[in-house]
Design a protein that fits this description.
There is one protein chain. By secondary structure, the protein is an alpha/beta fold. The protein contains ten helices and eight strands. The chain has a six-stranded parallel β-sheet, with helices on both faces. It is globular, with a radius of gyration of 17 Å.
Length: about 270
């Protein structure tokens, strides 16, 4: 029985992108034989437009709440899924993998977790509009088209950045950013991953042009994850930025992920 015959896949978006940004991935993985879905965060509307119209529904949503939301969704599946996450979705996906809720994980430009010490200047500049306003901690914050192109989709032409912004951008809770920023100073931080836990294979992507989660940050996380005996791989794409999971080059990542899973993920037991 091929692994791609019955294995579920759950896609997890990060801050400022609606779950519909995963639609091309869901279509591709479904066509490859997986049972793919991209549920949103608690508080997300069914569409980007609906989410933009009700941003307060996302107020004060933190990492633990979002992880618990996906844990509950996964518990209803017949077998542990592959989890594929972008940005904070990549952090949450790693938590699910470490907890045994997932069979494998693909983390695309994952937000830093407790123990990651790298903090490049570009990342600081990208986060400053939120972290520089502590009163936003329990609120939401939304990119403008300008800030989105400057720090999120800086590696694609402005026309494409504006189209991504129009199609997928949503307000996002500021709380996860604050949690990750102080994780190394907070005992029991919600933004931590048990890198020593027995786990399945993990693939990480980093973009050389990424200003939101720069390659140095992902490399530092990969170094910690590589101490685990489980399969751990890092792919660095020099010419890609933080929008790489949704922009014109998404297929390169998706095909690489499919190949990684086919190679490293064992078959689902019969009857699952």
């Amino acid at each position: 029985m091929s692994v791609s015959g019955v294995r579920p896949v759950v896609f997890i978006h990060g801050l400022w992108m609606h779950s519909s940004s995963w639609d091309p991935w869901v279509e591709l993985f479904s066509a490859s034989g997986y049972r793919a879905q991209a549920p949103g965060w608690p508080g997300d509307g069914p569409t980007p437009e609906a989410t933009r119209a009700n941003p307060d529904e996302l107020n004060n949503r933190g990492v633990a709440e979002v992880t618990a939301h996906y844990t509950e969704l996964i518990a209803a599946l017949p077998t542990p899924p592959v989890v594929i996450g972008h940005s904070f979705g990549g952090l949450i996906a790693q938590q699910l993998l470490a907890a045994g809720s997932a069979a494998a994980c693909v983390a695309i430009a994952p937000a830093q977790f407790k123990g990651v010490l790298a903090l490049p200047p570009a990342q600081l500049r990208s986060a400053l509009p939120v972290l520089g306003k502590p009163w936003l901690r329990g609120k939401t914050w939304a990119h403008s088209a300008d800030s989105y192109h400057r720090s999120f989709a800086n590696g694609v032409p402005r026309e494409e950045s504006d189209q991504l912004f129009a199609d997928y951008a949503i307000p996002a809770p500021a709380k996860p950013l604050f949690q990750a920023a102080v994780a190394n100073f907070v005992p029991g931080s919600e933004a931590q991953v048990d890198t020593a836990a027995e786990r399945g294979p993990l693939l990480m992507f980093a973009g050389g042009l990424d200003r939101t989660v720069p390659v140095a940050t992902v490399r530092a996380a990969h170094k910690l994850q590589s101490r685990n005996p489980g399969v751990t791989e890092l792919v660095v794409l020099p010419d890609r930025c933080h929008s790489m999971s949704a922009d014109h080059g998404w297929r390169e990542l998706a095909d690489t992920a499919l190949q990684f899973l086919e190679k490293n993920l064992p078959d689902v037991p019969p009857g699952s």
